[in-house]
């Protein structure tokens, strides 16, 4: 039985023309002539037995069914491109491991230690991608992930790495201009927020047994790198995972006004799909991560700090951060 399979060239021309709303723009992107793009779209229409566009002068108006088709084609071409790139990158003597990680954690905590892993495992190439939320391993071309959240990820195994602690931090100049002697004084200052953890300051108030009604005020940022930057610029006080600000604490760019840190209910985990449980490269990377997180000197600032435990039953609405 003959399969109804359009050529990838025709699909690429259709997708580009749909996305750019122009045959000429599609031709420029694909490095083809306008007539070549038009011919391939016409051949696709002949195969499908129906038009994809209404052509009015030089305008392309997609048919309703073509809009849905274009979205599917875009997804399929993207997956094909990814699979091809992975195949080209893989060699018989090298294993390619694609690792998803929160971007700020990756740049500040993992990448500085990467030379150690490369030196120990020269037969493994690492491909890093940024993810700030759980995803479906069956739908993504990702082998493993580093995850901050509760011990629950449908369709994935989770191996505990380490607990997470947050510290109230600000710039030295901000502290010099604000009198902070207890937790109530912190609530009088401008607070900085991370949008995926909207209840973090509320939980901090509960952990320190203070009542506060204005913990929701203050600027909000999508990425922790932006929260850190705002704190360093003296915009306000932020609650930041101490894993992410070791350098700033050491060099004095950030200070801890109260010296107290809060243990979060969320923790760091090594996540991977069931199909990868016996993968040697996955096991090696997971073992290396466990070793990295087991080093106390790399985990905590040397400054002594009392710990505040998050009250039982208190949960943050978004457990995954960047």
UniProtKB/TrEMBL annotation:
Keywords: DNA-binding, Transcription, Transcription regulation. It holds the Pfam family HTH_1. InterPro entries: LysR-type_TF_proteobact-type, LysR_HTH_N, LysR_subst-bd, WH-like_DNA-bd_sf, WH_DNA-bd_sf. Coiled coil: none annotated. Residues 300-309 have a biased composition (Low complexity). Residues 300-322 are annotated as: Disordered. Residues 6-63 form the HTH lysR-type domain. One of its GO terms (molecular function) is DNA-binding transcription factor activity. Residues 310-322 have a biased composition (Polar residues). GO terms for biological process: DNA-templated transcription. PROSITE patterns: HTH_LYSR. Belongs to the LysR transcriptional regulatory family. This is DNA-binding transcriptional regulator, LysR family. It comes from Aquamicrobium aerolatum DSM 21857.
